[in-house]
Write a structure and sequence with these properties.
This protein has about 280 residues and is α/β, with parallel strands linked by helices. It folds into two domains: about 5-210, Vaccinia Virus protein VP39 (Rossmann fold); about 220-280, Helicase, Ruva Protein, domain 3, CATH 1.10.8.100. It has helices at about 5-15, 35-40, 60-70, 80-90, 105-115, 130-140, 155-160, 170-180, 220-230, 235-245, 250-260, 270-280, and strands at about 30, 50-55, 70-75, 95-100, 120-125, 145-155, 180-190, 195, 200-210. Helix 3 links the parallel strand 2 and strand 3.
Amino acid sequence: MKRLSDIGTIKEILSRHGFSFSKGLGQNFLINPSVCPRMAELSGAGEGVGVIEIGPGIGVLTQELCELADKVVAIEIDKRLLPVLDETLAGYDNLKVINADVLELDLNRLIADEFADMDVVVCANLPYYITSPVIMKLLEDKLRVSSITVMVQKEAAQRICAEVGSRRGGAVTAAVNFYCKPGLLFNVSAGSFMPAPKVDSAVIRLDVYSEPPYKLADDKKFFTVVKAAFAQRRKTVLNSISSSLGLEKHVVNELLLNSEVNPQARAEKLSMDDFVRIAQGLKL
């Protein structure tokens, strides 16, 4: 098994295939040999488990996942990496590589077609620029997955894993907590990558609720409220929701009071239950 995290191996393989890094795709390949084995193990990959990986790069993490899981489906947007992956992962018959944009894929169909009788987890080193869109797609599509283990920018990880109602929390914090229980696993220094990014990263795991703790007739209202409340987070929740949704202040004020929420509070002070009550009372 090639050490795909070895910088010399990476340079030799990429040079032979005439590959150059794309800043637009946020490509940073791992060169710290301890990160991917640990990440794969903590993802829940194992016997009887299928794994969806997003952005395999040259296959450093993919290799570790294939060693543990029954099957791995890796989704890679950059077609230039397909021949590279054909070479680096040639020894694995439990791998399928799909050349596609994960944001445009029907992931429920993929799971039905590829992992019919398996438990499913997601494990990925996500490019910073699509972290939130990918995580929200994975959650909003209500996939049959038990957990999502991803490496993201450290600041994003801290925000996602913050307590709802804390200063560090934001719209994505509340959105993630609606679907799952997030946890920070470990930090990864910028020097663990080639080329090295300007900031550190962190690996987080989102354990998806089998039964959502928050019951709403229309989940979309919850996210509408959260986005509106944080749209102008320095303003009061009254002003932010009113301005964002184009509603009269007296209407929003009544909604908040009926929801037992202080209209003069800021969004970062609201709890999950506060957002749920507002969503339940919102009429659009």
